[in-house]
Amino acid sequence: MLGLSKKDTTFLVVVIFLTLMTPILLQPFPEGSVLAQFNAGYPDLMQRFAIYGIFAIGFNILFGLTGYLSFGHAAFLGVGSYSVVWMYKLLGYNVVPGLLLAVVTAGLFALLIGYISLRRSGIYFSILTLAFAQMSFNLAYSVLTPLTNGETGLQVYTDDPQILMGAGSPNSPHFFGIVMNESAKIDVGGWQFTFNNGYYFCAIIAIIVFYLSLRIFRSPFGIMLRAIKTNQTRMTYTGLNPRPYTLAAFVISGMYAGLAGGLLASMDPLAGAERMQWTASGEVVLMTILGGAGTLMGPILGAGFIKYFENIFSKINDDILHTWFAALPDGLEDAIVFMVHPFIGKGWSLTLGLLFMMVVIFLPGGLIEGGNRIWRLVTGRSRNRNTPGKDAQHHPKPTAHVN
Amino acid sequence: MDALILQFLNGLDKGSAYALIALGLTLIFGTLGVVNFAHGAMFMIGAFCAVAMQSMLNISKVTLDPTKLDFLGNPAQIRTPMVESLFGPELGGSIINWSVPLSILLAIPVMLALGFIMERGLIKHFYKRPHADQILVTFGLAIVLQEIIKYFYGANPIPTPAPDAFRGSIDFGVLIGYAQNTIIYPAWRLVYFTFSAVIIAAVFAFLQFTTFGMVVRAGMADRETVGLLGINIDKRFTIMFGIAAAVAGMAGAMYAPINSPNYHMGMDFLVLSFVVVVVGGMGSLPGAVLAGFLLGVVESFASMNEVKSLIPGIDQIIIYLIAIIILLTRPRGLMGRKGVMEE
Amino acid sequence: MGILEVSNVNKRFGGLQALGDVNLDIAQGTVHAIIGPNGAGKSTLLNVLIGKLVPDTGTVMFDGKSVLGRKPYEINQMGISRVFQTPEIFGDLTVFENMLIPCFAKRDGTFRLHALESIASEKGIIEKAEQMLSDVAMIDKRGMTASSLSRGDKRRLEMAMCLVQEPKLLLLDEPTAGMARADTNNTIELLNHIHESRDITMVIIEHDMHVVFSLAKRITVLAQGSPLVEDTPENIKGHPKVKEAYLGEAAA
Amino acid sequence: MSKFEINRRGLIKSGAAIGAGLALPTIFTRNAYAYVNEPKGATVTLGFNVPQSGPYADEGADELRAFQLAVEHLNGEGDGGMIGTFSSKMLKGNGILGKKVAYVSGDTQTKSDAARASAKSMIEKDGAIMISGGSSSGVAVAVQGLCQEAGVIFMAGLTHSNDTTGKDKKANGFRHFFNAYMSAAALGPVLKSLYGTDRSAYHLTADYTWGWTQEASMIAATEALGWKTVNKVLTPLAATDFSSYIAPVLNSGADVLVLNHYGGNMVNSLTQAVQFGLRDKQVNGKNFEIVVPLYSELMAKGAGKNIAGIVGSQNWDWKLEDEGTKSFVKSFGEKYGFPPSQAAQTCYAQTLLYADAVERAGTFDPCGVVEALEGFEFDGLGNGKTLYRKEDHQCFKDVLVVRGAENPQDEFHLVDIVEVTPVAQVTYEPENEMFAGGNLGKCNSGA
């Protein structure tokens, strides 16, 4: 179906199901319960899961398949966001023109940077991309402020032209009248589920681009990219020119990043310059490696993992801890709170750092490897048969080079 | 002209910090083939060695002085540093005053130990793993290290002044035949530059003139062959890791008076030091040093008002611009070897 | 006129004359071996043939076109395939995927963006790849990861990848280097089979005289950068000049 | 304005299908809200969004302490702090409108993106009805914009840029902290009396919006005194080594260096300027002086002894002698062991002001709160008589001019108060060109 094998079709159906059910699945604990703190089913975070999932899927097409490690993809994310907000300012709040522009400008920008950077390989390539992105960030923050509104971030002002805004047009981002920040809340028993327009908009786009990436993985182009990662010498002596292949992968992943950046601004009409900083580029690298580079689902898992910790763990404070352990005797309660305290709230990055280390030490293939292990355990299939999980055939062997 | 000399001095000074960090990073790349994202954190921990030394010397005996009141109206606490009560206020005072240079004595063993533990406990298991995994694990480690520092020292910068003797500036211009008050330069920055030059020279001498160094250099060129010769190169590489950490640590400790240490200063230097190493060329120690000084000097000149008025914002991007130009004209940086981290 | 003509090629590296006045004329359909003691210039000559080195003087014409200054992938597209000393294959890919790549390269040229087409729909390509794998008796290993193959199978796979492109000329750089005897014999058998069934011109650079004499129809002996003799294997055996050149080395 | 949670009925239809699919017995929806996150239970939730990682984490921690203290006092725990001295007597220590105050906290990371994400989760997940906190203007403007769209109140924390209540002002946003214009207006007369009217200033300015507004304000104020501006140089925000920018100052003919830097930038540029010996020099026959327009005690600590004698401005200082300050310092000091920073004070005051406005309005409805706060005059929160101006939601109150302490009595004594500049001197017209271009818009309650 859809040009996919039966296995891939099943896989895609599972992904679609999970994506559409996210508002329910991420809300496992009833409202008001002690563990409700761990619920992640609110619009902003779900949107971020989908958007950073898209970013990571795109990055994986470059890094996972070709092995070229870009440290500058945040630049495309930023360009995408700025494009969308500029379209808001000039035309109006419909997200479509902005998203189209975001993909196109990010693609062109990627073409330029990729064309230059891909003249080098390995770490030299990584540093070239990093240099371009850092230049973009530094300029966006300072000299280019008329274009980017600098530190504050680009936003819509009431005196912007917005020439396509009719009297009845919604006054916030919308898709032909479907307003992104509108939600339906449904209470079922003790649970409350939020079905947000913006989330479903992102989710549908995420499913489409996931499907595209699945097609790319299974296409002749996908094989060529993996061949580049494995052996460029054989590639050239087989009559193939690796450069246009890597450049195409770079541009495609740049467009994914631009789309993700555009969606960020579609959910929340503000484009901050920090989106272009090296830390943002590093984040997508971490997401991809953490989840499992070169696998289809890995990067999405990695994106979800990091965003979850950033948004959920940073909000747990001592008061919440005390309510959790309130049932315990006072001394014990204080002791436990004291022990847990460094890892939550402002210590969320410590927890994240430790988890990075644990995952990479114990699960060399990333989170997806953990998933595969559990899968094997559940299905009871033996380990030594090297049973393929969903993704095993694209699982990268640990090879001894960055790229 | 005097403005140019001033900026040249600034460049050398910036460059010596870059060079020291890049040197350690290259030692680790070159000998171990490991991408160490925690190297910036080593620099940061070095700087906190200076902070720790200062607070250790300031461990005080507390007495209450009922004649004075603190902000809540309670009797004020009078703190007398132990060192002062031990050696008398005069000598004790000057020991405290010299805490930053003294912290080198703390930084060397601490950083060597940290380096050994890191290499044996963690990095060792990642030699055969992809560079991507190395990046993830060392980045995780960098976060953990800086969060630990934040837990104990907070997020604010902590003042760590240079000894009084070097706190002010000296009239450098007079020394090289200029009029008075034309080239004024902070004394501590001159100390820092001299210190860096000594460390860099020492590292090179160590690699050049000792058997140990020769084996390591041979190992950098061809690890397998050296291994075949029956030399335990792994052990030496562990020591090199310790040395690299110690170099970064000393660079950080001595930098503390210039840049008040804070827990995330390592991340600020991380990206820059990678750029320096790559511009210098992977696996080349002289390249790292050369690139460090080059980028430092170029950055300083780009910060001059005359240049900035020509090209606004040039000082924000000059390092990256130079990096791009060099990498496009010289495929392996200034002095890189073929095949290192190129696949 | 041969398919590959090397005329008056000279190449110096500093003071060293690596190649001096090399003239070679390789006939269509032959198996031509280039032998010579260490340092005779075999590798330099090979690198000139594949365009990696540009000679100081002289020309290299393949099929009437110059190969000099062309990129490796252009030379391949002209019809020259190369087998390396250590097999160069796509280690992370399966045997079958390895075979697909040359098939696509043959059909689509140096670059084509088939990003959304499914491999499964490429019936012709799949058939061709499977056929080739059957020909080299590797069809039962199609799902294996290439890096896990034995040395002999890697060589077999590399050869198959070259052959599936139907090259006019196959360059082999010490195809049996480092192989066990049994693997060497298998490889010789394979090459002979290929030559007989496909009529491909082959140029072999080889050390091992057993291999050379089992395969070659003509042999050029290179010494100190220049061709010493060119003749049939029968005549090369026991040729005095050749013995002289190999003095001290174990001739076969 | 945008609607956040409305159109409920239409959406429920589509949602109901999914809900019914779950085949769970009780499907019901909450009563329609009159405004977003209307508190229905026995508690009301406030959101404190402060930097917990990054360079301002300590400032954020201090803000959070103040918020926690304010919540305690509102709920009737502790000694009541400034509730006792506050001129409005609506707060009784029984929560807000009888509802117990709960709070959630989050990390802005001092990035507008992260700050908005954190604020959104407070609004969407935790049902926060008011957001407060923050330690930079970029974040304040970004979160203020978000609160306007979402329909909750934003009580800004530490934000000093003119834009927060100028170009980027919003109906749902309120700023208690002072701003760059006020700093400059307060510093002017003091600089004149200390350093005279014949001075040449050299500006080093952090290259982002706050830096620019600070620089513009300072230039306007000093030039009005008759000072000349020799040069103004932008420095990268990420810079840690300012030597290249400081080196040319001494030979430029300037005799005053104005550091329009904040936080880590300020610590490093000031430390390094002192190391360059600027303060020991004589230029044009006058002592060379350094001015840091915006002081932050927490950051000043990082510069150590280098701040001695350096003049700057503050919103508030714990050494003030009024009753409000005294009781606040007492309850803060007793709880945490050290005196509060000005960031803590502004956050504490903002929380009380919000609670009081709700009490006076008799509703949590943001539009009611806005109305109650606009034009509100009060006293007893440490800054003397203060007005929340209706036109731009900026507080007008006295500004402190301070000077780095030469002989600190203890580790908390960082600055001496030079002068309390009366409010009249720092007041400006809402149409002032430095604040022009903005538009409050209408209050948004999300309904």
TrEMBL record, chain A:
Keywords: Cell membrane, Membrane, Transmembrane, Transmembrane helix. One of its GO terms (cellular component) is plasma membrane. It is a multi-pass membrane protein. It holds the Pfam family BPD_transp_2. Residues 384-403 are annotated as: Disordered. GO terms for molecular function: branched-chain amino acid transmembrane transporter activity. It is found in: Cell membrane. The chain crosses the membrane at residues 12-29, 49-71, 91-116, 123-144, 198-217, 244-264, 284-309, 350-368. This is Amino acid/amide ABC transporter membrane protein 2 (HAAT family). It comes from Hoeflea marina.
TrEMBL record, chain B:
The keyword Cell membrane applies. GO terms for molecular function: transmembrane transporter activity. One of its GO terms (cellular component) is plasma membrane. The chain crosses the membrane at residues 16-35, 42-60, 95-114, 190-216, 237-258, 270-298, 310-328. Keywords: Amino-acid transport, Cell membrane, Membrane, Transmembrane, Transmembrane helix, Transport. One of its GO terms (biological process) is amino acid transport. Pfam families: BPD_transp_2 (PF02653). It is found in: Cell membrane. It is a multi-pass membrane protein. It comes from the Bacteria. Its main location: membrane. PANTHER family: ABC TRANSPORTER ATP-BINDING PROTEIN, BRANCHED-CHAIN AMINO ACID TRANSPORT SYSTEM PERMEASE PROTEIN LIVH. Belongs to the binding-protein-dependent transport system permease family. LivHM subfamily. This is Amino acid/amide ABC transporter membrane protein 1 (HAAT family). The lineage of its organism: Bacteria, Pseudomonadati, Pseudomonadota, Alphaproteobacteria, Hyphomicrobiales.
TrEMBL record, chain C:
One of its GO terms (biological process) is D-alanine transmembrane transport. Residues 4-249 form the ABC transporter domain. GO terms for cellular component: plasma membrane. PROSITE patterns: ABC_TRANSPORTER_2. It comes from the Bacteria. CDD domains: ABC_Mj1267_LivG_branched. GO terms for molecular function: ATP binding; ATP hydrolysis activity; L-isoleucine transmembrane transporter activity; L-phenylalanine transmembrane transporter activity; L-valine transmembrane transporter activity. Keywords: ATP-binding, Nucleotide-binding, Transport. This is Amino acid/amide ABC transporter ATP-binding protein 1 (HAAT family). It comes from Hoeflea marina.
UniProtKB/TrEMBL annotation, chain D:
Gene3D superfamilies: 3.40.50.2300. InterPro entries: BCAA_transport, Leu-bd, Peripla_BP_I, TAT_signal. Keywords: Amino-acid transport, Signal, Transport. The keyword Endoplasmic reticulum does not apply. The keyword Signal applies. One of its GO terms (biological process) is amino acid transport. Residues 43-403 form the Leucine-binding protein domain. It holds the Pfam family Peripla_BP_6. Signal peptide: none annotated. It comes from the Bacteria. Belongs to the leucine-binding protein family. This is Amino acid/amide ABC transporter substrate-binding protein (HAAT family). It comes from Hoeflea marina. The lineage of its organism: Bacteria, Pseudomonadati, Pseudomonadota, Alphaproteobacteria, Hyphomicrobiales.
